[in-house]
Amino acid sequence: MIRFDFTGKAVLVTGSSRGMGAAVVEAFAKAGATCVVHYFADGEGQNRRDADETAGRCRALGAPVHVLEADVRRLEAVEELIRETVAAAGKLDVLVNNAGILRDKSVRKMTPEDWHAVLQTNLDGVFYCSKLAAEILPDGGRIINTASIDGLFPAHGQANYAAAKAGVIALTKVLAKELAKRRITVNAVAPGVIGTAMIDAIKPEVLAEYVKQIPIGRIGTPADVANAVLFLASEESEYITGQTLPITGGWF
Hints:
alpha/beta; single chain; Rossmann fold
């Protein structure tokens, strides 16, 4: 069994105050990495509280942890985030682009604001973070993007989300080719139904129907995603790049 060791590595996971991002950053902490927990400052301060709690769990694992805030929709904010990451952690070896939001509506009901909010966070943010991180990542560094199975098999009411995630998948392929000469690999994970707060809005009877379609017979956990991300960030995955890994329990 491979036990990943990220001792001496610095990892930034965007959108890691809770949910899948928190599971990913905690997995890196357990593997010995210096971790940067990133959050977006909401008006109520809940994201900061969640980020602090996640950082606390990481520190309990013995990992050096830093908590940084940035609006990934803004290039200037991402520039500051990357600068602060290097100042705090000393360098950056692995970037995990996980920050994302949902605003599900049918196209008929979807407003331009709904469309742009999701595209700006879920796609523009990945572009900005990847563009700036690539300038400082060492040769052999890693970028892992959180796409979605909706980027491959779009669902009703998710035109904005599916378009953004399909864009992430395409961007992943392009970046992989452009950064290959520096041995920086760029891959994406495409989770299916994962047990986070994002699925709280799904009616129980609808969720039950989803589960019936999953050959493994259960919804995924954040740890299922985190384990895949750690592999793609590891030295063992050095010959894998430009790929999108579905994490769906056999669904699709």
